[in-house]
Amino acid sequence: MLLYNPHLKDHPHHHRTIVKVPRIAPPFHKMVTTKKKIEEKLNVSSNENGRLAYTCFNDVVQQLVMQDCGTQGMPPLTHFEGGHNKIHLVISFDGTGFGSQQINTIALNNPRTSQSAQMLFIFGIGNCADDRSGTTRLLGPNLAIINNLMAKPEQLVGVCGKMVSFTIFV
Questions:
Q1: What is the model's pTM?
Q2: Adjacency order of strands within the sheet including 157-159
Q3: Sequential DSSP letters for 140-161
Q4: What is the pLDDT confidence band of residue 2, given thresholds at 50, 70 and 90?
Q5: CB under 8 Å to 11, separation ≥6 — which residues?
Q6: Residues paired with residue 164 on neighbouring β-strands, in sequence order
Q7: In this structure, are residues 138 and 124 in contact, taking their beta carbons and an 8 Å threshold?
Q8: How far is CA 30 from the centre of its chain?
Q9: Is 102 helix (H, G, I), strand (E, B) or coil?
């Protein structure tokens, strides 16, 4: 029921006026099922009742390497094979200074390519504070992966069938 006229209910010659509206959203159990299907299709996981969404950092690195190697002045993947030359990656956090009143993103960028927003590879998006705690929450399960790569820069990682090494700038 959207509204009714409470003054007409006691009047002997008038009926109470009621305006009903259809349900706008589907029932919760159907929404949860649809949300799970979308997450599976996009390879995204969510947390905190859907306020935060993540893509696996390793998957995003694979996408960046497949798309960027050999283009826009970046050498081909064979140049980085064996870890002799490192692939430089930049992780950037976008918080606009409005606390948790907006959507924040955390993305991977290749410093050798164009610095436009279209070249970013977003791996975390959500509604959280734009301070250190919000960044930590937005990294989610990727924080351990990134810290491991930064702690062992000599470690070779399998990317697109090649063993390469990274330097990560945050």
A1: 0.69
A2: 44-47, 52-55, 121-126, 104-109, 86-94, 162-169, 157-159
A3: TTHHHHHHHHHH-TT--EEETT
A4: low
A5: none
A6: 157
A7: yes
A8: 23
A9: coil
CB 164 within 8 A of CB 81: yes
Location of structure tokens 């390497």: 65
The pLDDT value recorded for residue 131 is: 78
What sections of the chain are H helices per DSSP?
A: 28-42, 57-68, 132-139, 142-151
- Pairing label, strands 44-47, 86-94: unpaired
Q: What angle separates helix 142-151 from helix 132-139, to the nearest 10 degrees?
A: 100
Q: Which amino acid is at 65?
A: V
Q: How would residue 125 be classed by pLDDT, with cut points 50, 70 and 90?
A: confident
Spans of all domains in the chain: 51-169
Beta carbons of 88 and 111 less than 8 angstroms apart: yes
Q: How far apart are CA 125 and CA 142, in angstroms?
A: 12
By the 8 A CB rule, do 54 and 35 touch? Answer: no
What 8-state DSSP symbol labels residue 89?
E
Q: State the Cα–Cα distance between residues 130 and 103, nearest whole angstrom.
A: 9
Average pLDDT score over residue span 71-80: 84
